[in-house]
Design a protein that fits this description.
39% of the residues lie in helices and 13% in strands. By secondary structure, it is an alpha+beta fold.
């Protein structure tokens, strides 16, 4: 599985359903705006599903805070590295806050499924992860693997099996902006392909598959082709059998509960 921080159709769907009511089309629109603003401004650090990434922790606990407190934190930042986002405007901040409050509505409903019993063979899943599925080429797992993608050591700890399966088989739903693959043509004719880590009106930051970062000024960029997808393979649903997918999901869950890689899948 490749970079990407992960992002998940189930979460977005639940949020949209939670806020879309028969007599309130405006509420549904606001919910969609909240998802979009979160993906645009927050997912790069906190993960597309808000459950944490390499740069920042899960935001699920934050959902229990008051609206005013969350608004202040997003606007003014917080100790520990959270930067202020006053520049995005009050309307966008309120949309992000609404998204975070929606997490609270779904936490209880999902908690039971998160601890569902593992039904696949974790040992076979481990072999797939480091072999046929090639997940380890991009993702770290308990200190082993690639580094261009996020670590999956703890990925399965708070996620249900069906949620992980969706992330594997539909990796770009939703697509986190910081996971999109682009091809950049420079003013000298050089082409660079990689993950778009950051961009603004003045600079563009690209990470190629060899792990190298390329920092380009806009004046150096002739063209940017946005692919609309991440490096994550989009054919796992046909590339792997149903049993293999189940085994891979089981490995991700079991390994996240066991800090010792040598014991994963051992019977």
């Amino acid at each position: 599985m490749a970079p990407r921080t992960a992002p998940l159709l189930l979460l977005v769907t639940l949020l949209l359903l939670a806020f879309t009511v028969p007599d309130g089309h405006a509420q549904g629109s606001e919910a969609r705006q909240g998802v979009q603003r979160f993906l645009e401004y927050c997912a790069g650090c906190h993960g597309a599903d808000a459950k944490g990434g390499d740069k920042a922790p899960s935001l699920t606990p934050a959902a229990s805070r008051s609206d005013s407190e969350l608004f202040r934190i997003v606007r003014d930042g917080a100790k520990g590295g959270m930067p202020p986002f006053a520049q995005i405007g009050d309307a966008n901040i309120r949309a992000v806050v609404q998204f975070l409050k929606g997490l609270e509505n779904n936490t209880a409903a999902k908690s039971a499924s998160v601890e569902a019993a593992v039904t696949g063979d974790a040992d076979s899943g481990r072999k797939l992860y480091f072999g046929k599925a090639q997940c380890s080429q991009c993702h770290l797992m308990q200190g082993k693997g690639g580094f261009i993608a996020s670590s999956l050591t703890n990925y399965g700890r708070n996620r249900a099996a069906d949620e992980i399966l969706k992330a594997i088989t539909t990796p770009d739903t939703p697509l986190a902006p910081s996971s999109q693959v682009v091809t950049v043509t420079t003013s000298t004719g050089q082409e660079l392909t990689g993950v778009l880590r950051n961009e603004d009106n003045f600079n563009l930051e690209l990470q190629s598959e060899d792990g190298r970062y390329h920092f380009l000024a806009r004046s150096e960029v002739k063209d940017v082709h946005y692919t609309g997808h991440s490096l994550m393979p989009r054919n796992y649903a046909t590339r792997l059998s149903a049993k293999e997918l189940n085994d891979l999901v089981s490995f991700l869950i079991v390994s996240s509960r066991n800090p010792h890689p040598e014991k994963v899948g051992r019977r």
